[in-house]
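Handoff note, outgoing to incoming analyst
You'll be picking up this chain. Sequence as last confirmed:
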Amino acid sequence: MQQVREFCGYLLGGALCIAALALCGLAWLGLEAELGWQWALAAVVVGAVARINVALPVGLYLYAGIFWGWPMAQALAFSAPGLLLVLPALGFGLLGLVVGRATARH
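Most recent structure output, in case you need it:
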């Protein structure tokens, strides 16, 4: 029974990794279509250096609006999960900047 649970966990982990890679690809296509590949690459590099990836939800929003032709509300709903992950990190970064020291994450 333990082996079945482990296998299901590995299967779910692999599926989530594939879904994350697909979303990253869609975000890249959205940024590249709107800004060009140079600015898309710059956004990805800045996100990696700053450790706050704002480019992913923005790219997903642009992809949904440009390629799928979704209205703004649907495109925002599509990119909202990424925004929900970025906002706490952005808040901690701003708080650390204002306070002058790194804040503890629990």
